[in-house]
Fold:
Amino acid sequence: MDCLFCKIVNKDIPCDLIYEDDKVIAFKDINPQAPVHFLVVPKEHIKSLDEVTLEQEELITHILMVIPKLAKEYDLSKGYRVVNNCGEQGGQTVDHIHFHVLGKREMLWPPG
Structure:
């Protein structure tokens, strides 16, 4: 499989790792859009949010529990944004579900 995030998960490509457990990894974005910008990526390859199954409900819940834990570690107490890009028009550029966490600056709306 030629998936960038699978290669990062498998340690074939280095990253600035900030968290890892048996289900997910989190690492700093190589092109940060905020003073704090990291990705939370499941180790299991799932192409996009559109392909999540009921069997993966626990995994997605786990991701959503890891994000606030990391936000607290990065002192994002004033707020942060979680972004999941889904599909080409949604801005997804890597076909492996992942969640961007951005903080330490004012977020604009609309975001796009």
Summary: The longest helix spans residues 57-73. The mean pLDDT is 96.
